[in-house]
Amino acid sequence: MKIALMDSGIGLLAAAAAVRRLRPDADLVLSSDPDGMPWGPRTPQDLTGHALAVADAAAAHRPDALIVACNTASVHALPALRARLEPGIPVIGTVPAIKPAAAGGGRVAIWATPATTGSPYQRDLIERFARDADVTEVPCPGLADAVQYADEQAIDETIAAAAALTPPGVRAVVLGCTHYELVAERIRGAVQRPGRPPLVLHGSAGAVAAQALRRIGELPGSDPAEAAPTLTVLLSGREERLPAAALAYAEGRLLATVSPAL
């Protein structure tokens, strides 16, 4: 079994690690676009072109499924990606976990990139799944870039800025960008208030990993001791090793046991 994942950068690590935990025997293809990132400021047409190129590079390795591990690409390019690759390769998009966050009750904050915050796409999800919830949209300028380059100071500063915009009574935070899942515990530490119930963070990595298995008729589980999975890393179409910045995160170190970073 082979699962491919695509993103503009290393935000795909969270979903890739989730697939690895569910199926330690799965071969993985990680296709990203460091030459073309960030995708957020691009026009939808331009972004779709980049996403198709990254998807085509992954598809050349004949995966059983492709996870679009990027909220922005899922918003703008998912129909084009499915038209290009399905039915031969099932394409699984990433949707912010607004529905389960709202279902838990209480105040909810959605941390997302400035391009996604306030967008018709996100507002539609809020209207459909959180109409009766107390929702605050929190833009996080610079956080995805800081995570991408493992810039510790910038990560601390951008998380602190977003935490300052997050209402003190928030019970749950939706991580509306896949990059944010790599620093989830740092976000929890910045938002959690003394004396308040434990903050609940809602990411998408586990859900999209499980959905990919369902789409290809596979179940979780295998003997990690017997698994001999491969990891293929494509950077703007070039086959290379994991970027060194990936090792700053637990998810990257998990995957690096198969493919060491440069």
Question: Could you explain how this protein is built, in words?
Answer:
There is one protein chain. The protein is α/β, with parallel strands linked by helices and 262 residues long. The chain folds into two domains: 2-94 and 206-256, 3-Layer(aba) Sandwich (Rossmann fold), CATH 3.40.50; 98-203, Rossmann fold (3-Layer(aba) Sandwich). The chain is built from ten helices and ten strands. A six-stranded mixed beta sheet has the order 4-3-1-2-9-10, sandwiched between helices. Helix 2 crosses helix 3 (71-85). The longest helix is centred in the N-terminal third of the chain and has 16 residues, at 44-59. One of its GO terms (biological process) is peptidoglycan biosynthetic process. GO terms for molecular function: glutamate racemase activity. Keywords: Isomerase. It holds the Pfam family Asp_Glu_race. It comes from Streptomyces alfalfae.
